[in-house]
Structure formats: structure tokens, C-alpha cells
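Before the break, one more example. Copy the sequence into your notebook; we will annotate it together after we see the structure.
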Amino acid sequence: MAKSISLHKESIGLKVVIYIVCVILSILSLLPFIIMFVNATRSTYEIQQSAISLYSAHPIQNLIKNWKVFNGKSFDPATGFVNSLIVSTCTTCLAVYFSCLTSYALFAYEWKFREAFFGLIVGVMMIPGTITMIGFYQAAYKVGMTNKLSLLILPAIASPNMVFFMRQYLQASLSMEIVDSGRIDGAGEFMIFNRIVFPLMKPAIATQCIFTFVGSWNNLFVPSILLTKREKYTLPIEVSLLNGDIYKTEYGSIYLGLSLTVLPLLIVYALLSRYIVEGVALGGVKS
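Here is what the structure looks like once it is written out:
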């Protein structure tokens, strides 16, 4: 009896320690976002005096002032937001669907050069994108595709990192008996993929949607090279303009721009995070 009580106390103590650690890690993770949102409601003078603060003396007045600076002088955050939303959403949809389709072909079908093709995909993963940017820009310039949002979207069809991830997920979670049963019932290959396989990949899709959307939304390097017209600027380019000579002292407007940039990412994560948790729980049950 005494031994069981002792074990029970140790279990409670361990849980308390785990909860405390989780709370501390959560605070450390959220603190930069809280400081960023608070600084968006502070004046430049207040930020210069103390960059880290959880209090703003006049939040509404400072927010209005920062917004006027943020929205003024040939700066168009609405256009940048729309362009970023179009590029990120289309990039995510294309990358996820075609990567799932490619990974399914690599997993479910037996064909002659399957392993060689997968090796090629792994090899492409090792090549940094910055190395190919000069050739990519030259090719885009020759075909007249610069200053077009479609040039930022179409390359997402080929996403070797996502193909690799999806293939590994299919190997761990998809049973070919399900596919064979669909074939026996007379379903076509595309119907099997779209109606059976694709829904089963929800946890992996949710994970990759978050990564792809965040990566596309925060992408500054490629758009800054390919886009030169202001009406085509994405939001990261617009926010980067706040560091120019005119806006370099307006720290409040810079934090406001960063806050607007982060908000869609938080919304996407909030919508898709439950699928990631469900996937982890499902994997634990299977194991």
C-alpha cells in the first residue's frame, strides 16, 4: 500500500514537472509574437526607448498613426496582401496535389525506372535553389514571364522535398489491400487516388500545407528578383520597403507590417493543426 502511494506521488510529481516545462516552452514560443503585436501599437520613440515591452501607453492612437505611415507614400499593403494570398494559396494547392500524385505513383506502381526516378528526386533535393536562380531568371526573361505571378506558382508543381515526405508517409500508412479493393469494385486509378488515397493522407497534407504556405508567404528572394512592377509586389517585398530611407525610423509601422504578415500564417496553422494532432494520434494507435 505504501509503495503504491509512493508511486502515485512520483507520478503526480512527474506530471507537474512536465506541465511546468510545457507552460514555460509555450510562453517562450508565444513571447516574440506578443512583443511584435504590442510593438505594432507603440510609437517609434517608445520602441527606441525599450524594444521589448508588453505595454503600450496609447495603443489606439499609435496603431492609427502606424497604419497611416504603413499605408502611405506609394505603399500598397492591400495589393501586396492579395498577391501573396494568390501565390501562396495556388502554390500550396498545386504542390500538395501533384506531390501526393507523384508519391502515390512511386509507391503503388511497379515500373522499370522507379528507383532511379526516386533517386533523381533525392538528388534534386540536395541542390540549393539559389544555385539555379540565375538560369531560372534567364529562362523566364527569354519567354517573357517576368513580372507575372504565375511564374511564382507553376514551379510548385515540382516539389521534390514534398514528394519524398509523402512517399515515406504512404509507406507507413497506406495498405495496398485498400487500393486493390477499389480496383475490384471497378474504380479507375484516378478515382482511387482522389476518393480513397488522397483523403487518407490528410495528416501529411495538413503538415505540408502549413510548411508550403509559410514558405511561399515569407518568400522574399525569388519575388524580389522576378517582380519589378509595384502592382505585382508580394507582401514581404512591401514590408521590406519599410526599411528604406524614408521609413527606416518608423519602427512602429515596421512591426505593424510584420504583424499583418504573420496573421495569415497563424490562421492557417490554427485551421490545420488539428489534423497534425490526429495524425500523430493515429500513428500511435497503429503502432
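The radius of gyration is 24 Å. The chain has two domains: 2-62, 77-248. Try to locate both features in your own notes.
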